[in-house]
Structure formats: C-alpha cells, structure tokens
C-alpha cells in the first residue's frame, strides 16, 4: 500500500490539475487568471474549491465547475469536490499572473 502523501503535496497536485482548466472565453487557465481563491481538503477527502469568475453573472459557472470537478478526479486523496463561487473580494486583473497578462496582451 502506498504511503499517504502529505497535505502540501496533495494541494500542489490540485493546483497543477487546476492549471489544466482553461477558461473557454479567455483561453488561459483559471489558476493564472487568479480565479482560485482557496483550496481546502479535509482528512475525509472532501475538497472545497473557492473560486470566482471574471464577471458576476458569467454564463460559464456550471461549465467551469464541471471542468474543475473533472480535472480533480484523478487525485486519489479526493473523495468529493465542492466548487463554491465567491464574489468577495471582487476579481481584478491585478490577480492575474504575469504569464496570463502576457498571454492576453495586458501590460
């Protein structure tokens, strides 16, 4: 049987998997866009992702939640996934990584 991985290692894998979730409108992943606010994983494998969207009322809410869910399925420590959309603090381009700003031509 494999030795249990520590929480830091699992969270790093979660972030890597979330970098595969590409915002369909912007073509950049949700991590570099700064849409991920918090990742919680408890001892029972319940994973809660708090994220936001670039605009309130974005029609992609359900699609992105499904994409996050699908991306995290291969992580063996996760038993359940709950994607919670939060609007405070409001998202701004300041949350974007340098990579995302370059990809979108924002200087």
TrEMBL record:
Which molecular function terms from Gene Ontology are attached?
A: methyltransferase activity
Taxonomically, the superkingdom here is Bacteria
Q: Which UniProt keywords apply?
A: Methyltransferase, Transferase
Matches recorded under InterPro entries = Fe-S_Maturation_MIP18, FSCA_dom_sf, MIP18-like
Gene3D superfamilies under this entry?
Fe-S cluster assembly (FSCA)
Please, one GO biological process term? methylation
What are the MIP18 family-like domain coordinates in residue numbering?
11-83
Pfam families assigned: FeS_assembly_P (PF01883)
What name does UniProt use for this protein?
N-6 adenine-specific DNA methylase YitW
Q: Look up and give the organism this protein is from.
A: Liquorilactobacillus satsumensis DSM 16230 = JCM 12392
Q: What does UniProt list as this organism's lineage? A: Bacteria, Bacillati, Bacillota, Bacilli, Lactobacillales
């Amino acid at each position: 049987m494999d030795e249990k991985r520590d929480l830091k290692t699992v969270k790093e894998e979660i972030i890597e998997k979330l970098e595969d979730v590409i915002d369909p409108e912007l073509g950049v992943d949700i991590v570099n866009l700064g849409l991920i606010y918090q990742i919680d994983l408890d001892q029972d494998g319940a994973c809660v992702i708090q994220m936001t969207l670039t605009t309130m009322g974005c029609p992609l809410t359900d699609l992105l939640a499904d994409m996050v869910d699908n991306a995290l399925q291969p992580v063996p420590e996760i038993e359940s996934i709950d994607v919670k959309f939060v609007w405070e603090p409001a998202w701004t381009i300041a949350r974007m990584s340098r990579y995302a700003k370059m990809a979108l031509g924002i200087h």
